[in-house]
Design brief:
The structure is a single chain. With 164 residues, the chain is mostly helical. Helices cover 72% and strands 0% of the residues. It has helices at 11-24, 29-38, 43-55, 61-74, 80-89, 94-101, 106-123, 129-143, 147-162. α4 crosses α6 and α8 runs antiparallel to α9 (147-162). The N and C termini lie far apart (73 Å).
Length: 164
């Protein structure tokens, strides 16, 4: 028979658990608040715990935003619009979003864009060049790249493909 009772954490145990949670990976306030609810910590203690995490440098929204932007671009090859949308989803302020986007240089951005666009174009097997182009547009748009860059790249790839 299963026990359906809830074990309650003391405030010190909750602080300790959340210190480990934040030390493992950069977190934003939204993720920490969600974790507090998942741990069934009374909402009257939320502010105290969050202040403790900030004071002890476990929680830093600016550090999170910059790390998130760098990581998602470098590792997942996300474009600016997707990174911005994801940061907004996590309730990061527009000031911090601008600061985070400065982490991605134009050189890095276009190098990554060129690489994934070319790789994806090569892997698409459609005979119809327009279908191939549509699939690439969808792929790059989902990644968060701007349509003007995508269309320029499509034109370039079509021209190189059609040449004998």
């Amino acid at each position: 028979m299963e026990n359906n009772y809830t074990t309650y954490l003391t405030i010190e145990q909750a602080k300790n658990k959340l210190e480990h949670f934040c030390a493992y990976q950069e977190r934003c306030h939204t993720e920490v608040t969600s974790k507090l609810f998942n741990l069934k910590i009374s909402s009257s203690y939320h502010d105290e715990i969050i202040v403790h995490l900030i004071e002890n440098n476990f929680l830093n929204e600016e550090r999170f935003a910059c790390s998130f932007a760098r990581g998602k671009h470098r590792i997942s090859s996300w474009g600016r619009s997707r990174i911005i949308a994801e940061l907004k989803l996590r309730k990061i302020s527009s000031f911090l979003i601008k600061k985070a986007m400065q982490e991605i240089t134009d050189e890095m951005y276009f190098e990554s864009f060129e690489k994934i666009a070319t790789q994806k174009w090569i892997t698409l097997t459609d005979e119809d060049i327009n279908k191939k182009a549509q699939k690439l547009i969808g792929f790059l748009h989902r990644k968060g790249y701007e349509m003007e860059f995508i269309l320029d790249k499509i034109t370039e790839l079509k021209n190189t493909t059609e040449e004998p």
